[in-house]
Amino acid sequence: MYRIRFHGRGGQGMKTASRILGTAFFLEGLEVQDAPRYGAECRGAPIFAYVRASRSPINERGIIRCPDLVIIADDSLVTVPAAGVLAGVTDQTFMLVSTSEKAVTWSHRLNFAGSILTLPTPVEITDRMELRFVGATCAGAAARLCGIITSATLEQAVREELTGLPSSVIERNLEKALEGYTLMAEHEGCIKEKAMLSAEQYEVPEWINLPFEKASISAPVIHSSLTSELMPTGLWRTMRPVIDREHCKKCWWICSTSCPDGAIDIDADNNPQIDYEHCKGCLTCVTVCPSHAIQAIPEHKNPTSEETGS
Amino acid sequence: MTRKLLTGNGAAAWGARLAVVDYIPAFPITPQTEIIENLENWIDNEQMPARMVTLESEHSMITAAGAAAATGVRVFSATSSQGLLYAMEMLYTVAGWRAPFVLVNVSRGLSAPITLEPDHNDIMAARDSGFLQIHCADCQEVLDSVLIAYRLGEDERVRLPVIVNLDGFYLSFTREPVEIPDPQAVAHFLPPYDPENIRFRASTPISQAVAVLGGTPYSYFRYESHLAAQKALEVYDEITAEFAEEFGRPREALESYRTEDAEYLFFQIGSFATKAREAVDRLRESGWAIGLLRPRLFRPLPEKHIRQALAGKKGVAVIDQNLAAGRGGVLYSELASVLFGHANMPGILTSFIGGLGGRDISTEEYFEMAMVTRQAVTDGEAPSPRLLYTETELREVQKLQAIANMERIELGAKP
To answer: pLDDT, tens digit, for every residue of A273-293?
Structure first.
């Protein structure tokens, strides 16, 4: 059985990628199971999707815990624990990362003994609208890595999955899918069908007896203000609002009251300060600022503290 | 016939489309909404000659479904979790009207705390409502079960509403290859509805909800519903024999997977049972005599089928994806009552609670449940019911508790 997991952010087309790959396998005559796992259901929030494909009926079900191939459409997710990118990864796993960095850099960073492949992305993204096609590229790359999907089948799968969209969008996705497919030519077939788990030798689950705890501990009660503080939702951000102090008129209440997350505070001198731990990058402040003093910059540019004015 | 990839929700919608339903009262709820979206899309594009009405709540939705069914038309509706519970008053009421329709429930755990992910506490809450229940293990079965449900509910010997249950996420959002049968073949298996004397019209009012006092007529009406639900078992067997002939897929009341020579069995309902099938295959490879029993039909429960299948077996691992607070697993209790007092039944039932709120059950856990059951048979004593929960999971919760504790300290409470 092939077991493949796609990780990305809401809006990057991970569900579509899994469906393109699933349909491609199906068209090649395999039994298939594909599914997205929704979480925050928010643009920019981590999402993953998975595909199983096999020559015989599939009885496995649910999230793939030990994937043969993990595809990471957005390398900033690696450090987000909730994204679970590295879950179940072993030295037998292949990782395909869409990144501007080298594979060896990721191997070192993650101390990862398995194989890392990359889909190169430019350091500077000139057209952010292009980002939405990354899913198609990933699907095309995955199709090639599995070695049993022809480019004609991939094309048919893209067309089937995108039926109803404008033809320009379909063509662009197709182009990106085939680009991913071509890029992986030298690794064609490196993902093999893996055997099923054996009952001879298996890791015994570490079941415990859940201890009794009083309701003062065990009731599902959270204190919203403090919990919000401790949950770093800023990790969802792909674009960062940055205040240009020269042009900021300190009218203070417009950006701070418009922020849906209450992530803009005002200091003693009436300077708005953005709390990047919790700013989700919705860019409402950028839109409402009357003096156009808030800019949006891609998150990966990682501006200095001076630039962010904090 | 076409074979294509469909989600469980897509398969449910196709079932309703092929059944040529007349009326669909609807209310959205995750993870069910996709069913309604599919149907309204087809209706808008004139691919389906049905009427859809969105109601203001599930309570009204089930009332509308029952009222429409009482006019003698074919009715379909769908809900999940909190929606099913919000409709609970009307579930019991419309079942008492004896006007059949089909309701799909996409299982999802109940609040509080709230979740979107599946377990069976919602559908178990409707266990005693008078609705019959069919539980699905894969997407193909969802489509097939909707068709079977109409035949079953509409049969003159039954005339009860039927719930078709599928698990949220694990089926609702999961695509699998599904054979969509030809409409002609479906029409042959499921002809247009003959409602007999069910024909409420505004011009000739009837009452579906007579007041009865003193208990005598009440007992009669309620027990007749019970007898009809029991009758539904033999009707189901007849219908699924026809279904198998028409479509080649046996949909028996009780799935028996590799049970003939088995000494041990898993006992489970719903989509996780395919995981049990997988574990059975792997355990068999290592020499185990083990199988799976899965009731498709949960109401009525195919008691005789179960006793037949369990005669002479040594031990059964019962896996409940529900939790009756203060009692334990519902399936476990049900199975124990089916076996008690009958000769040659397995002496050991082990009880496992797992899969609550979408918590997965791993293949290794199935292996271990088999081991525990075999050990219990050797010891002659079943261990206490076991929640499938690992040390790592507890550590994860303790991490959350550490945050909660910090809050308490900051808010000035004693740690």
So the answer is: 999 999 989 999 999 999 999
